[in-house]
Amino acid sequence: MASKLERAGVEFSYLTFNEYEIIQNAALGAHALYTFVDKYSNYNKDYRGVSIFLCFLVLPIVYTKDYSNVICSKNFSRGSFIKILTSNEIIFEGIQERVLDLKKTTFRALDIAFSAELLIYDKDNGKIYLNRKKNITPRFGSDKGYKKIIAASRRLGAWFSQLETEQILAYLNVKI
Fold this sequence. Notes:
Number of domains: 1
Strand order of the largest sheet: 1-3-2
Number of helices: 10
Largest sheet: 3 strands, antiparallel
Order of helices and strands: HHHEHHHHHEEHH
Distance between the termini: 38 Å
Strand content: 5-15%
Number of strands: 3
């Protein structure tokens, strides 16, 4: 009988077993994306939806333990994100590859969020919106990793909302 890893058909040679389990948890990804879009909409004065491209950056960043640890130690101001980028606290090297590696996971997470009607996708403009009629109140228990992923998603939402999509992609050296 094939293992979970073999059935997944995805190569995760750089991940530990716990990280692999987290990444395979599309419900956690849906919660992280919901939280990201929620904070993005709260912090963006001219909120006109979140570019779907930004959603594909969230999981590769928040699922990386070192990134989440640094991100969670910062506040929600735009300056905190810029400081991270300029101080070399986090080297966002390899984000492009992580985006590609986690593309299927991000699609699954988005599918869950859309199916649960937590997020709404406008295919005419490629933007994602928070469904204000729905809300989730998760029970984290004592899992610090889960809490850290959600906290990092909140900060990314706040930070990304204050910059243009093109700026973020350039800062992180990601090409679409």
